[in-house]
Amino acid sequence: MKFTSVVVYAVVGMAAATQAFVPLQTQGTTTARFSSTAVEGATSQVERNENFAKLAGGYLFPEIGRRRNAYVQEHPEMADRIISLGIGDTTQPIPPHILSGLVEGAKKLGTKEGYSGYGAEQGQALLREKIAKVLYNDLIDASEVFVSDGAKCDIMRIQQMFGPKVISAVQDPSYPVYVDTSVMMGQTGNQDTSTMQYDNIVYMRCSPENGFFPDYASMPRADVVYLCSPNNPTGAAATKEQLESMVKLCRERGSILVFDAAYAPFIRSPGVPKSIFEIEGAKDVAIEVNSFSKYAGFTGVRLGWTVVPSGLKFKDGSLVRDDFNRVMTTAFNGASNIVQSGGLACLDEEGQKEISTLIDYYLENAKLLRQTFEEIGFPVHGGTDAPYVFVELPESVGGSWNAFNMILEKAQVVTIPGAGFGPGGEGFLRLSAFAPKDSVIEACKRLKEAFQ
Amino acid sequence: MKFTSVVVYAVVGMAAATQAFVPLQTQGTTTARFSSTAVEGATSQVERNENFAKLAGGYLFPEIGRRRNAYVQEHPEMADRIISLGIGDTTQPIPPHILSGLVEGAKKLGTKEGYSGYGAEQGQALLREKIAKVLYNDLIDASEVFVSDGAKCDIMRIQQMFGPKVISAVQDPSYPVYVDTSVMMGQTGNQDTSTMQYDNIVYMRCSPENGFFPDYASMPRADVVYLCSPNNPTGAAATKEQLESMVKLCRERGSILVFDAAYAPFIRSPGVPKSIFEIEGAKDVAIEVNSFSKYAGFTGVRLGWTVVPSGLKFKDGSLVRDDFNRVMTTAFNGASNIVQSGGLACLDEEGQKEISTLIDYYLENAKLLRQTFEEIGFPVHGGTDAPYVFVELPESVGGSWNAFNMILEKAQVVTIPGAGFGPGGEGFLRLSAFAPKDSVIEACKRLKEAFQ
Question: Which residues form the Aminotransferase class I/classII large domain (chains A, B) (predicted)?
Fold first, then answer.
């Protein structure tokens, strides 16, 4: 029973044995011949960064891929049956107008007039302006927009800027990058193997009981609060009142709010804010991370941005934007000029229409997934203003990694166990609506059978 | 005399006043109305990362751009006359075969069959294989190649992996990213304003006296040694013997060598290694950083890679590649799929030919620049196996920032002062060969006049 041992790995938080590269203990020993004065075995005397030793295992999403591949290797006859509702990876082709932005962006590099080399590390001026205008209705200024190769990379750069001494607060469950990069930066202690939480991170439990919105007021103060809405993985979209209370709290406690709005355009409910900057006073306390990935089909194309308001300050009065600018100019070299050309097309009226159509498509999938689990009889969350459906599992399933394994084995559907997003996700399963519609329909059929 | 004060900034290492965003002290004070319970002035209580306060000024290359723009603003009539031999930015269009790789890479994203979303964070398998085969002649394995959005970004990710506790050694002068990211990561103390060096970095002086190759043996041991060959800014390409001695030293001292080979294909002298892995024993001690930027015209397109050998180990025996893989998967999301398609085309036989032609073009420019300064009567270095020419200035010029200003003012040519690359660069000027040939010819004419 292979899956039993897989579950054991999961319980200890994905053990070292599941890492990408299995240590090759025998390598390097044959190299002594190169130099008679060499250090024995040629192992360097460089100490490993202790913060990396704290990380419990591989990053979640590659881990899911490895488990999928392991299953296929054991059951090659099932390879063609696999349907991925796992990582939130877009599947629909890039629509014509946006595509033409990319293609023309590439083509012009072959001409003397159109060629361009290094651009501003912060992004092309026109793209920054269009983001501010089209997406923020000029609530923010172009000079506050930093164009990047994606939200995940920006989160690391934000951590880089804050450095090792801040205390971070995260929703639990949450997108694993917030916690993992906090650990990598040295902000945390070790992971407590009983609670699965790292010391020195504030875990803000999000559950059906609090509408998946964190009760930061009841938690210890943190310097940096990570909040994602519409949420990955729970699919919850925070209301205006919730966000107002969070901004107020951050102002009172002197915290900086890092607001991850990567799924904002999926919001269809009226009155639900699509940006933290719709909230009064947010420009004094919030940074917003954003991305074209999920609704322009840019997951592989790579384009995002971060807004750092000009008035946001550290305790000493220095501007956060100046330090973020230093990270962007020193540790980054601008998003690809071809890709930025695609970003400009996204912000044309035609591009915006195409995006809306793509979102309709994925939200229709989300609806099918919701319906399926309602019919199965499990409580379902998310999937209306977000591309993720978050399913509450009955205790009989035996935890979310067990459910993941069972569904992979019985239905050949890849999901993501809630526990992968933090201890608070245990007992839940995340399903992504980004698959092609016919795959979603087929997956729904099989899921119903699997849970019968 | 505006330039006098500019020189003063330069002497203190580019002061805070030259940063991208001048602090707007008055901002944020008008926001108190948003919430009666707000912290006064709404300044956060988050401490600024102390490592950022140590950074002396803005990153060098944007600083050069700002000075250029300031000059144009003061002398708008000169705007059209400006020739940039400053930052190493490519100017020639991307040749047809490589371009077709990019264009087709974009086009296929518009089709159902060709669409792809997230790829492996380490890069497409085929690209990793082709890099190992075509560029390294299988000296390394595809699994040791990590494809990225460029060498600059990879250097930060390497620092991220090593963490705050290592001691880094750099060539002096050197590409500023090594030092700046060391400071940002907290590896260093403050900058000594008399020597312009940061405490806790080993500066390895490179000068005409030692052929611009560092004498690491005479310096204190470092954990991580950054070595760039062909060198930016000096243009020196290290010989096989020099690299052998460095690898031997790193093995003896247990140091890890980070070898920056971004300019390797510019090497035309027979016998000069294009990769550190041509040196026996290097796979136990070296990481190699590399890039398509400079010879495929990809400075704005963004594609590079880093090789981390599978046998390279930390002191505790753990594999460096595992930790670098953790950074790449957690803090990065893969290079753009469109761009990777262009990278594949670079590695076709046709792409390799196109690259060779581009390099010929730029090396011809370098030759013109060399000749010009030889005629002026200044000693000239580099420019034969590298796209940079490094000119020794006579004392009468009054330092490299003065020379930069004088040349900008008299000849409207943008260069880079050697001092921008570290204290060891004082008294030198770097000129880039990446301009169009007719601009280089014109610049050479004006430079001769300016120095008459």
Answer: 82-446
Could you say which residues from 412 to 431 on chain A have a Cβ atom under 8 Å away from some Cβ of chain B? none
CA distances (Å), B431 to each of B316, B411, B443, in order? 44, 14, 11
The CA distance from A29 to the nearest CA of chain B, in Å, is 9
Q: Which residues, numbered 197 to 256 in chain A, qualify as contacts with chain B under a Cβ-Cβ cut-off of 8 Å?
A: 223-224, 247-248, 251-256
Half-sphere exposure of A117 (CA within 13 A, CB side): 18
Count, residues in chain B: 452
- Measure the CA–CA gap between A339 and B190, rounded to whole angstroms: 39
Residue B33: partners with Cβ closer than 8 Å, 6 or more residues away? none
Distances (CA, A) of B376 to A404, B398, B432, B442, B448: 73, 17, 18, 15, 6
Q: What is the CA radius of gyration of chain A?
A: 23
Q: What's the pLDDT score for residue B41?
A: 52
Single-letter amino acid code for the residue at A198 = Y
Give, for B287, the enclosing helix (H) or strand (E): strand B286-291
Token couple for B198: 């940061």
Can you give the pLDDT at residue A336?
98
> What's the mean per-residue pLDDT of chain B?
91
pLDDT, average across residues B405-422: 96
Query: What domains sit in chain A, N to C, each tagged with a CATH number?
Result: 60-93+351-450 (3.90.1150.10), 96-348 (3.40.640.10)
pTM: 0.91
Nearest-CA neighbor of B123 among B162, B90, B155, B154?
Answer: B154
pLDDT in tens, chain A (452 residues): 233 333 333 333 333 333 333 232 223 333 333 333 444 457 899 999 999 999 977 778 888 988 999 999 999 999 999 999 998 899 999 999 999 999 999 999 999 999 999 999 999 999 999 999 999 999 999 999 999 999 999 999 999 999 999 999 999 999 999 999 999 999 999 999 889 899 999 999 999 999 999 999 999 999 999 999 999 999 999 999 999 999 999 999 999 999 999 999 999 999 999 999 999 999 999 999 999 999 999 999 999 999 999 999 999 999 999 999 999 999 999 999 999 999 999 999 999 999 999 999 999 999 999 999 999 999 999 999 999 999 999 999 999 999 999 999 999 999 999 999 999 999 999 999 999 999 999 999 999 999 98
**How would you write B68-127 as a 3-class SS string?**
HHHHHHHCHHHHHHCEECCCCCCCCCCCHHHHHHHHHHHHHHHCCCCCCCCCCCCCCHHH
Residue range B8-32: mean pLDDT, rounded: 31
Both tokens assigned to B360? 């010929």
Q: Which of A14, A109, A112 to mutate to test the interface with B (most CBs of B within 10 A)?
A: A109
* Helix segments in B235-331, DSSP class H: 240-253, 293-296, 320-331
Q: Between chains, do B301 and A150 touch, taking CB under 8 Å as contact? A: no
B341 — contact with chain A (CB < 8 Å)?
no
Q: In this complex, which of A27, A44, A329 lies closest to B314 when CB atoms are compared?
A: A44
- The span from the CA of A163 to the CA of B256, in Å, is 24
> Alpha helices of A146-300 — where are they, by DSSP H?
151-162, 176-184, 240-253, 293-296
More confident residue, B32 or B79: B79
Q: Which helix (H) or strand (E) holds A370?
A: helix A349-376
d(CA A202, CA A221): 8
Interchain contact B133–A (C-beta under 8 A) = no
CA distance linking residue A124 with residue A101, whole number of Å: 14
Instruction: Compute the nearest-CA separation of A302 from chain B (Å).
Output: 6
**CA-only gyration radius of chain B, Å:** 23
Distance CA B396, CA B389 (A): 20
Min distance B370 CA to chain A CA atoms (Å) = 24
